[in-house]
C-alpha cells in the first residue's frame, strides 16, 4: 500500500476525521437562524412562556433582536415571550422554508430590554408567588446559536413544567461544528459573568437550579469555583447543580469540586458511556475520560462518586436525538413530569453514588442495590 504523506502511519488522523464528519452531519440538521426571532402576533388562545436572558454575546445590528457569536464588553439582559405550538413539528423548534406556522412552530411574540437590577426585581416577584420558589438557569454547550438556545429552553421549560420563568445564560458560542477550541475560550471568558448572575440569584429568597449541558457544564463549574474563591460559599451551597453530559476532564472536575467545599446537596451528573461527542473531545485533548461518559457500573467509579459527594445518573436508556448521542436530555425533559409524579426525579435522589434511569424511563434506581455492584 502506498504511503502518501504518512497517512497510513497515522491512524489517529482517520479517527479524528471520522468524528469531525459526525459533527458535520449533526450540524447539517435544520437549525433556527435570526429570522426565527422576528416577532409575530400570538396565535388565539396560545400558551405563552417567558424566558429571561443574560448573555455575554454581542447584540446583532437592528432591526434584529438577537445576539451573534461574537463576545460583548459587558452583559446584556432581555426577556422574550415564546408561544408554544399545540402540535410541534417532529424536530421541535426548527423550520426550514417559508413562514413559520403558529400551529407547529415556536414563535417570539414579545421581547424587551432589562438591566441587572430590573432582572433581579422581576425574578424576586416571580419567586414571591410560590411557597417553595426555584429559578432554573440553563447554560448551553458547544455549537449553539442564540436562537437555538433560547427556543430550546422555552421548549424544555414548558415540557418540564417549570413554575417560574427560566433564565438562559448564553455565552458567545460560534455555533460551528469545527469551532471547538474557539468555543472553549469564549466559555472560559464568560465565567465571571455567570458567577455574578448566580451570586445575584443566591441573594434572593428561594433556590436556584443550575442546569448545564456539555461545555456549559465546564463553564458552570468554573463559575461556581470563582464564587467559592470569592468567599461566596453560601451562594454556592444554595445552588442545586445538574450537569448533563458534561464535557469536563475527570481530573479537572475533581479539582473543581475541591474548591467548592461542602455542599448541602450532591451535584447531579447525567452520563452515558456511549456519548460519541465526548469520545471526540477526549481524543482531541487529554485522552482521559470525560465526566459525562463514565461507566456508573464500574465499582471504582461508584466509590469515587460517593466519596466526592456526586450523584452519577446513567441516562443511556433514553433514546438519543442524534447519531452523536449527546443530547438525550431533550427527551428526558418530556419524561420529567412522569418521574416527578412517581417520586423518581433527580431532585428526589439525595444520596451520593451511582444510579441508572430504568429502561421504561419511569424511575431512578441505585446501582449498588439494583445491579448487584459491590
TrEMBL record:
Family matches, as InterPro entries: AB_hydrolase_fold, DUF900_hydrolase, UCP033909
Pfam family, one: DUF900
Gene3D superfamilies in UniProt: alpha/beta hydrolase
Highest taxon above the source species: Bacteria
Cited PANTHER family: ABC TRANSMEMBRANE TYPE-1 DOMAIN-CONTAINING PROTEIN (PTHR36513), TRANSMEMBRANE PROTEIN (PTHR36513:SF1)
Protein name per Swiss-Prot or TrEMBL: Esterase/lipase superfamily enzyme
